Amino acid sequence: MPSTRRRLLFAAALVAARAPQRARAAALPAIRPARPAPPPIDIGALFPLSGGRAVLGDESLRGLDLATDARNAAGGLLGRHLRLVKADAPDPAQAAAQAGELIGKAKVAALFGTGMSALSVAATQVSELAGIPYFELTAIADSITARGYKYVFRTCPPARDFAALAVGAIGETLAPLWHAHAAALRIVILHEDTLDGTHMGDLQAQACKTARLAVTDRLVYPAGPPDLTTPVRRLREARAQVVLHTGSSNDIILFYRAMAAQGWRPRMVIGASAGYALADTMQAIGEPLLGCLDAAMPQYQINPAAAPGSAAIAAAYQQKYGAPPRSGQSLATYAGATVIYDAIARAGSLDKDRIRAALLATDIAAHGLANGWGAAFDSSGQNTRALPTLMQWQRGAAGQPGVPVTVAPADLAVARARAAMGR
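RE: above sequence
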């Protein structure tokens, strides 16, 4: 009996001793294991990052990078972080192969690209077959959205709009400045024999015919690095006054060197390719490029009232890359990627059909994007509210060889077009 009593007293004392511990434990919040962060959404970024188009490819990629940074800073997409998986596509074969790698191995949810039409045509064939959405941001050949593909969307203007703007500048801009009749001007079309060059040359020839402008000649040269001595001699012999030129940035440099070597130049060169708006092209050529016109993606030097946010994007670019933007290519890819990300958010899913439906329902008025574009997609996947602008290299502040300013259309312009080249 005494031993039993001692055991009971010991048990009671033990319970009393543990009571405060239980009370303290009950007062503490329950500790649950932290939920792991959801996996990122991998997005393929396919651009030419080596070879002759590397600078433009990198500039395009930078705009996509900045748009992705902005989306992640705002909380990501569908509650998840976005991660760009980058791949180099210097030629069509590599574009197709890398698209397959991104889809098959990296398991990307979608692809962005590419800045060059031949690359886009090759890569989109692969993505469409795999049922993966492909968003073209800067390649312009009309054929990209003319093949009946269901999951290919293009946010930038097609080549036909660039051709119309370049040819329209002859009658609407140059003829009044020169007090001349546009139909009397000697016009020559010059281009490389790539998909972009040939397609643009065909469209410009048709636009000239429609506008009743006489094309004196059409000169074609092989893709790079070309010898432009003979084409320049033929331009000189034809006494060309306006040259409509489509070529890579390297072609443009060689073209101007050939003109300097022969001591000749036309009254005006009108470009219809991204290389003409590239800061690296101006740095390589210098003052002779002043006055040159280009039908181009909207530049950062644009009316801010009609392109809200362009200055902020330029500042973000400067902060991230330690240098000012090299061309409006990055502004175009930023604007385009923003439209796509917003549509995916509205879709509420990465399902390709829900994304397509959301994009087809997109309705952004003109001047609603940072480069002055709007967004509304037709059934082919083409943004019908994206238009090129006419830019001109004009003299900048001290230390700047030239600045690519917007001179048309009027609602986006920040300067008036000048009549002469080289000053």
